[in-house]
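User: I'm curious whether this sequence folds into something compact or stays loose and floppy. Could you predict its structure so I can see for myself?
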Amino acid sequence: MSEEFIPDTSETPTPPAFSNPPSESSPRREPIKVLVIGSPQGVNNTIHTLYKRGFAEVTEWSPLQPTSNPGEVMSVLRRQLRIH
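Assistant: Here's the prediction. I'll summarize afterward.
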């Protein structure tokens, strides 16, 4: 039997090297913004409808902000999406 196949028990085993660093295998995150523009009633209705469908909590949306058009407001939802 050849000596080269007998393990050296005095050496500490080296952990295997990963081909991809752990950060590359985990999903990345990308910021997105969802914007709703319309009348105050229309924007609020849309936010509440999206809440009922499980899209976002009502409190996650920004307060209504006026636009340059009279009677029109907007609200923004900011999210971090996982990109695979």
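Summary: The chain has a mean pLDDT of 82. Residues 29 and 82 are 5 Å apart (CA to CA).
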